[in-house]
Design a protein that fits this description.
Blueprint: H1 2-24, H2 33-51, H3 61-74, H4 79-104, H5 113-128
């Protein structure tokens, strides 16, 4: 009984040490939520298929495929949102800086490129903040 209590105390102390660090390591964006939903959906489909009777004729390899694809959807694939947002923000900055370049060359456009740049920055901000503004400097498309 003492050993069981010691193990419980050790696990509690480990949890108190590890969980705050794991929570702090979470990304400060909600943009990855749809990918987490896709990941969990694929895992659920795999679990359901694995639990079905073999008499139904559903191949077992489908569960293996969903279990293999799910971590990719929740991990590396989710970072494509960040890269897309960063790329759109970069395009906005480049387009915004073209105003002074074109003015220096004596060229005029019927519209302000800074307004076009604002559209790109608004799109980038929207990608990162579907529910609330949580993106922080140095990359802050909503700033």
């Amino acid at each position: 009984m003492k050993k069981l209590i010691s193990i419980g105390v050790a696990l509690a102390l480990l949890t108190m040490a590890v969980v705050p660090g794991a929570v702090a390591a979470q990304p400060e964006t909600y943009a990855k939520v749809p990918f987490a939903i896709i990941e969990e959906g694929l895992l659920l489909i795999g679990d359901i298929i694995a639990a079905l009777p073999t008499e139904l004729g559903i191949p077992a390899w489908i569960a293996d495929v969903t279990d293999t694809i799910a971590p990719f959807a929740g991990g590396p694939l989710s970072w494509t949102v960040d890269m897309l947002g960063w790329g759109i923000w970069l395009v906005g900055d480049v387009v915004g800086s073209l105003d002074s370049l074109l003015a220096g060359m004596g060229m005029e456009l019927p519209f302000e490129l800074s307004e076009v740049a604002g559209i790109f920055n608004t799109i980038a901000c929207g990608l990162f903040t579907p529910w609330t503004a949580v993106v922080a400097p140095p990359f802050d498309p909503c700033g």
